[in-house]
Design brief:
The protein has a single domain, classed as NAD(P)-binding Rossmann-like Domain (Rossmann fold, 3-Layer(aba) Sandwich). The protein has nine helices and seven strands; from the N terminus they run βαβαβαβαβαβααβαα. The chain has a seven-stranded parallel β-sheet, with helices on both faces. Strand 1, helix 1 and strand 2 form a beta-alpha-beta unit. Helix 1 packs across helix 7, helix 3 packs parallel to helix 4 and helix 4 packs parallel to helix 5. It is globular and about 55 Å long. NADP nicotinamide-adenine-dinucleotide phosphate (NAP) binds next to helix 1.
C-alpha cells in the first residue's frame, strides 16, 4: 500500500500539502495527523485519495507508540512524509511560560525527529521527506529565540539527513517559508513583546507548490518569495550580530 503521511494536516501549510499531494501523487491512502480530529475528517470530502485521519497530540509520548503500531500493523510503502506540525510563541524568553517553550522543542524538534526515525524503515528508493522549517532558521532571533532555534535544528537535520540517505535514493528537503497567512499567528502572538511586520504575507498554496517543484529539482532547501530569498542570502554573508542589531532596532529594543 503506497501512502503519504502528513502531520499538521488540520490547517495551514500541512493541509495545503494534503491537497497538492492528492493531485500530484498516485497513492492508496494519505495518513493525516493533528489533534483536531474533526478537521482531519473534513478532508475526506475534498480529497480524492482515501484519507486515514489520525488524531494525535504529537507532544504526548504515547503518540510515538501509536504511530509505530500503525506502521508495523500495515507495513505501508511510505512515498512521502511531510512534517508540518509546529508552532511558535513570540515574546521575551523570560515572559513566556516554560511549558510553552518546552512544547515548541517537543513538537518542532522531538516529534519531527521521532516521526522521521519511525517512518524511514518504511521508505524506499524515490521516497521524499519535507521538513517544514522557517526563514527564522537562518539567524538567531531575539524575542523569538526558542522558536527560531528549533527551526535552525530542522534545517541542519534535514540537510545532513538528505546527504546520509543519498545511497538509499531518499530525498529530504527543508521548506523555509517567510510569513504565511495561516492560524499560526493566533497561537504565536501573545502580547506586544514582538512587533510582527505583516507587510508581506504569502499563501500556503505558493509555498507548497514551490516546495513540490523544488523537491523534483533535488534542492535541499525551498524558499518562496524574492524578499525571503534575499534575506537567506544576506544571512550567509552578514555578521549575525549586525542582523540581530537591525532586528532589535525594528523591535525598538
Ligand atoms: N505561518 C507562518 O508564517 C510560518 C512561517 C514559517 C514556518 N511556519 C511553520 O509551518 C508549519 C505549519 O504552520 P502553519 O503556518 O500551517 O500553522 P497552523 O495553521 O497553525 O498549523 C499548525 C499545524 O500543526 C498542528 N499541531 C499543532 N500542535 C500540535 C500537536 N501538539 N500535535 C499534533 N499536531 C499539532 C495543528 O493541528 P491541531 O491544532 O489540530 O493539532 C496544525 O495542523 C509549522 O511548523 C510552522 O512553524 C509557519
Amino acid at each position: 500500500m503506497k501512502i503519504a503521511i502528513i502531520t499538521g494536516a488540520s490547517s495551514g501549510i500541512g493541509r495545503e500539502f494534503v491537497k497538492q499531494i492528492d493531485c500530484t501523487e498516485k497513492l492508496d491512502e494519505i495518513w493525516v495527523i493533528a489533534r483536531r480530529g474533526e478537521r482531519l475528517e473534513e478532508l475526506k470530502s475534498i480529497i480524492k485519495t482515501r484519507i486515514r485521519a489520525i488524531s494525535l497530540d504529537l507532544t504526548d509520548e504515547h503518540s510515538d507508540e501509536e504511530l509505530s503500531y500503525l506502521l508495523s500493523d500495515t507495513s505501508p510503502d511510505v512515498r512521502v512524509l511531510v512534517n508540518a506540525a509546529g508552532y511558535g510563541k513570540f515574546g521575551e524568553f523570560e515572559n513566556l511560560s516554560l511549558p510553552e517553550q518546552e512544547g515548541m522543542v517537543r513538537l518542532n524538534i522531538q516529534a519531527l525527529t521521532k516521526i522521521t526515525y519511525r517512518v524511514l524503515p518504511y521508505m524506499s528508493n524515490g521516497a521524499r521527506i519535507y521538513q517544514v522549517g522557517s526563514m527564522s532558521a537562518f539567524m538567531p532571533v531575539p524575542f523569538i529565540s526558542v522558536y527560531a532555534a528549533t527551526k535552525a535544528y530542522v534545517v541542519s537535520f534535514s540537510r545532513s539527513l538528505n546527504r546520509e540517505l543519498r545511497g538509499r535514493g531518499i530525498r529530504v528537503m527543508a521548506v523555509c517559508p517567510g510569513w504565511v497567512r495561516t492560524e499560526f499567528f493566533d497561537r504565536a502572538v501573545v502580547n506586544d513583546d514582538v512587533v510582527v511586520y505583516y507587510n508581506k504575507f504569502y499563501t500556503p498554496e505558493q509555498v507548497v507548490s514551490l516546495a513540490i517543484k523544488d523537491m523534483k529539482k533535488g534542492k535541499q532547501v525551498s524558499v518562496y518569495g524574492a524578499s525571503v530569498k534575499l534575506f537567506v542570502f544576506l544571512m550567509k554573508i552578514m555578521p549575525h550580530k549586525f542582523a540581530m542589531w537591525v532586528w532589535c532596532k525594528q523591535q525598538k529594543k
